[in-house]
Design brief:
about 170 residues; alpha+beta; five-stranded antiparallel β-sheet; three-stranded antiparallel β-sheet; 8 strands
């Protein structure tokens, strides 16, 4: 994250996440330098990278046409081929919603779960890396991301998108 003016160590990255992005991050364990946060004021939606790419494009298209505000921070989990969208915690606690997302291979990371964030100690970005890094406290509504997931699933075609961690 080259835009961090005071160096890039787990400590400075964690401070950046807290101060600039309003992410409640901490280093755990300190000797490894892994950066995590508890899902509470921020939730996440994890999905296959092919669907994530389609959703990101859909949310960007909405933003470009003033119908939305964009995708917000997105992480890639390179080895598992999944993307994580950080979202506002506004999803209803409904079994039908969770079942629908489960059928699409989307996990809802809710209050109490731990979310790992990219850290400079991640060897060569093999674990987590930013597709769209956080630059401010903005996170999209979880409901708007779910709407985009539904739209992309209804259109189909996203399953044919390459599932690499690349954009």
């Amino acid at each position: 994250m080259e835009h961090i003016p005071f160096g890039d160590t787990p400590h400075t990255r964690c401070l950046y996440y807290r101060r600039v992005c309003d992410l409640p991050a901490w280093i755990d364990p300190p000797e490894i330098g892994r950066i995590v946060m508890r899902a509470e004021v921020v939730w996440a939606l994890m999905m296959p990278s092919a669907l994530g790419l389609a959703v990101n494009n859909d949310l960007r298209r909405c933003r470009d046409h003033d119908a939305g505000s964009g995708a917000g921070p997105i992480m890639s989990h390179v080895r598992s081929g999944r993307w994580t969208f950080l979202v506002r915690p506004d999803l209803p606690d409904e079994t039908a919603l969770f079942a629908e997302m489960f059928r699409l291979d989307v996990s809802v990371v809710r209050t109490g779960a731990t979310i790992a964030l990219p850290s400079p100690s991640d060897r060569g970005e093999r674990f987590r890396r930013w597709i769209q890094p956080p630059r401010c406290p903005f996170r999209p509504s979880g409901l708007s991301v779910v709407d985009s997931i539904r739209a992309c699933a209804a259109r189909g075609g996203w399953l044919r998108t390459p599932s690499s961690g690349q954009r």
